[in-house]
C-alpha cells in the first residue's frame, strides 16, 4: 500500500505525506542507510529519538547473509532488525554492478560469483522481487542497470556514450516491466518504484520517465546519479528530471548527497533522499554542522569544550537533556572528548558522531518541511547557504 498526499508546493519544491504499510512519512525526507540490517553503530531507539521515519535495507547483502530462510523465519526485515517503521530496500542491482569483472550482465539478468563464498549466483528482476517480497520492505525498487559515468576505470576507460546510455536505459525499462509483472504475481502488498535512467543525457532521461509513467508505478526514483560524475553533471540531471515526474506520486533521488545537494534537490522537486555520507563521514571524522563541515581529527579540537554543533540538540551535542549549547545546555560531549575517542579508536567515538551527523541530516529536512509549511522555503535556502558558508 502507498498513498501520497501533496500538502503544499513552492516552485518545484513539495511538502507531502507518504503513507506506507508500516507507517506515515513526512516529506521531504532523508532516509538513513542500513545496509546489513543495521544503521552502523546506531540503536533503533536512537534512530527513533532523532526522528528517523524510514530507513534503507540492502537486498543484495541481506540475500548473501543471513539469507532468505532466516528472513522468512522472522517474517521479514522489520521483525529481524526490530525496526517497526517503514523500510525501503534497493533492488540489489547497484551491488551486483559494483562487482565489476566478477559479474556478467545479460538480457535475462546478472550472473555473478558470491563475494562471501564464491558460489555462482544469478540476479534477475524476478529474483530481486522474490527477495524483496520476503524482506517485506514497504518500498521495493525495480531491478535496473545503474548506468555508470565511466565505462571501465577512470584511467583506461571512457565516459559513457549516448549509445551506451541508451542501451542501458532500454534494458532497465524491460527489467521494469518484468519487475512489475513479478511483483504483482507474488501478490506483494507493498509499493514498487520504477527507476529513471538515461545517464547524463536529458532526452534519454525523458524517454525513460515517459515509458515508466506509462507503466504506472506508485512512485519513481531517479537513479544513475552519484556514480562518479562531476558535481555539475549531477546537478544538471537533478534540475531536469524530478519535476517532470507525475505530481501526485513520490520522487526519490537515489544516493545523493551533501546537505547542499539535499536542499537543492528539494528545490528541484525531490521528496526522498538516501546517502551513506552522514554515516560514513562520521566514522571518518568529518562532521556536518549548521556552520559548515568540521574535521574532528584536526589538532585544534584537542581541548575545545564546545560540542560539535552548538545549535544541535542531538544526544552527542546536548546529552540527555536535549538542550543545545547555544541555549545554555552543558550536558553534551565536547569536541575535545570526541577528538580523544577518535585518536584512541574507541567505539563510542563513531557511535556519537554518527548520531550527530544523522541528526543533522534529519533535522535539516525537518527545517525544510517547516519552511515549506510556512511558505518560506526560498528564504530558508538563502539562510542555509549563508550559515553553511560561515565556517565552524
Ligand atoms: Zn549534534
From TrEMBL:
CC annotations in GO: cytosol
Pathway membership: tRNA modification; tRNA-queuosine biosynthesis
Catalytic activity: 7-aminomethyl-7-carbaguanine + guanosine(34) in tRNA = 7-aminomethyl-7-carbaguanosine(34) in tRNA + guanine
Keywords (A to Z) from UniProt: Glycosyltransferase, Metal-binding, Queuosine biosynthesis, Transferase, tRNA processing, Zinc
Cofactor binding, per record: Binds 1 zinc ion per subunit.
Active-site residue list: 90 (proton acceptor), 274 (nucleophile)
Enzyme superclass (EC): transferase
Pfam family, one: TGT
Annotated positions binding Zn(2+): 312, 314, 317, 356
Domain tRNA-guanine(15) transglycosylase-like stretches: 13-389
Region spans: RNA binding: 255-261, 279-283
Family: Belongs to the queuine tRNA-ribosyltransferase family.
Role according to the record: Catalyzes the base-exchange of a guanine (G) residue with the queuine precursor 7-aminomethyl-7-deazaguanine (PreQ1) at position 34 (anticodon wobble position) in tRNAs with GU(N) anticodons (tRNA-Asp, -Asn, -His and -Tyr). Catalysis occurs through a double-displacement mechanism. The nucleophile active site attacks the C1' of nucleotide 34 to detach the guanine base from the RNA, forming a covalent enzyme-RNA intermediate. The proton acceptor active site deprotonates the incoming PreQ1, allowing a nucleophilic attack on the C1' of the ribose to form the product.
Description of how the protein assembles with itself and partners: Homodimer. Within each dimer, one monomer is responsible for RNA recognition and catalysis, while the other monomer binds to the replacement base PreQ1.
Protein name listed in UniProt: Queuine tRNA-ribosyltransferase
Amino acid at each position: 500500500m502507498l498513498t501520497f498526499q501533496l500538502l503544499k508546493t513552492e516552485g518545484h519544491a513539495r511538502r507531502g505525506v507518504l503513507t506506507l504499510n508500516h507507517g506515515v512519512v513526512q516529506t521531504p525526507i532523508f532516509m538513513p542507510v542500513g545496509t546489513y540490517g543495521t544503521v552502523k553503530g546506531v540503536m533503533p531507539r536512537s534512530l527513533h529519538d532523532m526522528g528517523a521515519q524510514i530507513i534503507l535495507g540492502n537486498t543484495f547483502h541481506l540475500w548473501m547473509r543471513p539469507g532468505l530462510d532466516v528472513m522468512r523465519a522472522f517474517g521479514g526485515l522489520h521483525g529481524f532488525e526490530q525496526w517497526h517503521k517503514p523500510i525501503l530496500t534497493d533492488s540489489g542491482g547497484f551491488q551486483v554492478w559494483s562487482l565489476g569483472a566478477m559479474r556478467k550482465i545479460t538480457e535475462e539478468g546478472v550472473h555473478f560469483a558470491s563475494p562471501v563464498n564464491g558460489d555462482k549466483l544469478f540476479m534477475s528482476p524476478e529474483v530481486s522481487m522474490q527477495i524483496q517480497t520476503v524482506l517485506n520492505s514497504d518500498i521495493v525498487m525495480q531491478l535496473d542497470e545503474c548506468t555508470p559515468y565511466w565505462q571501465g576505470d577512470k584511467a583506461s576507460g571512457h565516459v559513457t556514450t549516448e549509445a551506451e546510455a541508451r542501451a542501458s536505459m532500454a534494458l532497465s525499462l524491460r527489467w521494469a516491466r518484468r519487475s512489475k509483472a513479478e511483483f504483482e504475481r507474488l501478490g506483494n502488498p507493498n509499493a514498487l518504484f520504477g527507476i529513471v535512467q538515461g545517464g547524463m543525457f536529458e532526452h534519454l532521461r525523458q524517454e525513460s520517465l515517459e515509458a515508466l509513467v506509462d507503466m504506472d508505478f506508485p512512485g519513481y526514483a531517479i537513479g544513475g546519479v552519484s556514480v562518479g560524475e562531476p558535481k555539475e553533471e549531477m546537478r544538471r540531471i537533478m534540475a531536469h528530471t524530478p519535476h517532470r515526474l507525475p505530481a501526485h506520486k513520490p520522487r526519490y533521488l537515489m544516493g545523493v548527497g551533501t546537505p547542499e545537494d539535499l536542499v537543492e534537490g528539494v528545490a528541484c522537486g525531490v521528496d526522498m533522499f538516501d546517502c551513506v555520507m552522514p554515516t560514513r563521514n562520521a566514522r571518518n571524522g568529518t562532521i556536518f554542522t549548521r556552520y559548515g563541515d568540521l574535521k574532528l581529527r584536526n589538532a585544534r579540537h584537542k581541548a575545545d569544550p564546545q560540542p560539535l554543533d552548538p545549535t544541535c540538540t542531538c544526544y552527542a551535542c546536548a546529552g540527555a537533556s536535549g538542550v543545545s549549547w547555544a541555549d545554555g545546555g552543558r550536558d553534551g560531549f565536547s569536541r575535545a572528548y570526541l577528538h580523544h575517542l577518535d585518536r584512541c579508536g574507541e567505539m563510542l567515538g563513531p557511535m556519537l558522531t554518527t548520531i550527530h551527523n544523522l541528526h543533522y541530516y534529519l533535522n535539516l529536512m525537518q527545517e525544510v518541511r517547516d519552511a515549506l509549511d510556512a511558505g518560506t522555503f526560498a528564504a530558508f535556502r538563502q539562510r542555509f547557504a549563508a550559515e553553511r558558508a560561515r565556517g565552524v
